[in-house]
Amino acid sequence: MPSRYRLLADITPLRESAAFRRLWIGTTLSSVGSALTSFAVILQIYDLTRSPFAVGAIGLAQMVPTLVVGLLGGSVVDATDRRKLVMITSAGMAMVSALLAAQAFAGLGSVWVLYGLVAVASALGAINRPARSTFIPRLLPASQLSAGLALDRLSFQITMTVGPALAGAITAAPHLGLRGCYTFDTITFFIALYGVARLPAMRPEAGTARPGPRAVAAGVSFIRRSQVIAGAFLADLDATVFALPTALFPAINAERFGGSPRTLGLFTAAIGVGGLISAVLSGPLRHISRQGLAMLITVAVWGAAFAGFAVAPSLWLTLALLALAGAADMFTVVFRGVIVQSATPERFRGRVMAADYVVGAGGSQLGNLEAGALGSLTSPAISALSGGLLAVAGTLVIGLALPAFIRYRYQPRDPASEPESVPASA
Asked: Positive or negative CA dihedral for 364, 369, 372, 374?
């Protein structure tokens, strides 16, 4: 079948790069564990407080360290062996998961302990994830960048599908509960560490700026000068700040569907299923060149789906709309990744990916706080509906304000200018 008609995801990077394959497997398994912890923290805080605002405040506990550490951490990523940096921060995140398991076994029941551990994990993640995201352009040739990012997103969608459903089952199982979620997450970190340990060294380029405020300022200046990168960041903020009502899920589940942990797990799992299907059928992505316009369209679909979710009268329609949102999100993230990675020189990649992480994580955390606060002041349904409609309106504003972003076309670089890739046998 001609390649332009292939619907299935391009798995060439998994076939040709052993290093990418090990990284992908380890990251996928560890991400499932992290999804269990995210589910458990949300449910534990809701069980302790019965407050959507308290659940939304998880976003504040994550956002502050993300903003404080994120941008400065990007300058460290650019000036350090990224493989070693990921190993160190992953070990720290494994320790946090172990402490979460310990507090669950001890029955502490302290919201502030949970907020504190979440904040520490977020600070470590603000260095770990930007550093990890720089691996793909170093492991793969530019011609495989889109496929590699789609596979990376497929890993995330597997996590979104398996993690919440598994978390709901573990939480509801006798003798396991939240303790089982935290323990499983701790174990999976060691699998991820193996995948990173087998990678080649990821040393910085010669002449890279030393870490510090001056290097951060240079990275911010580079982003500000690029309408394309700025547009990608603004589109992502539009989606996450206005239309990411996961803080409302426990309350909506309790109001409409009886509050079962299994049903709550299905909410996030439905988003994962939609993203997983679109990731598996991501073959045509390689032929889309107008990435900016495509990203705005998928953000609008995301917002519209959550607006519909807010008023859906049945569980099946609710899950279908969440699946549609997940499908749109998968494409949005791949488009953003291709735009940001292809438009960023190697010497700035750590700082730009740190900014990308701050935008993505900080925006979603701010969105959870906003959704939870508005849901407490009005109702969960009004909060989700208004946020979805604002996200749709935001795409129109960005398109009008940044015409260069809409006109942007992605063209893979000439192979002679590509960074050296790691041999398949590495």
From this structure: negative
Largest CA distance in the chain: 59
Write out the two tokens for 390: 């604002």
CA-CA distance, 158 to 141, in Å (whole number)?
Answer: 25
- CA–CA dist 278, 56 (Å, integer): 29
Type of residue found at 46: Y
Q: Which pTM value belongs to this model? A: 0.69
Q: Which two tokens stand for residue 69?
A: 């550490």
- Give 420's DSSP letter: P
Cβ proximity of 250 and 46 under 8 Å: yes
Decide: helix, strand or coil at residue 210: coil
Task: List domains and CATH numbers for the chain.
Answer: 12-412 (1.20.1250.20)
- Say which amino acid occupies 295: M
**Residue 25 main-chain phi, psi, to 5 deg:** -65, -45
Task: For residue 226, give the nearest of 41, 404, 53 by alpha carbon.
Answer: 404
Q: pLDDT (tens digit, 9 = 90+) per residue, 381-424?
A: 889 899 999 999 999 999 999 888 888 887 665 433 444 333 33
Q: Could you give the angle at which helices 261-280 and 249-257 cross, rounded to 10 degrees? A: 120
Please state which of the ranges 68-82, 203-217, 231-245, 289-303 shows the lowest mean pLDDT: 203-217
Contact partners, residue 102, CB within 8 Å, separation at least 6:
none
> What are the residue ranges of helices labelled H in 198-260?
213-225, 227-242, 249-257
Please classify residue 235 by burial: count the beta carbons closer than 10 Å to its beta carbon, then call 0-12 exposed, 13-18 middle and 19+ buried.
buried
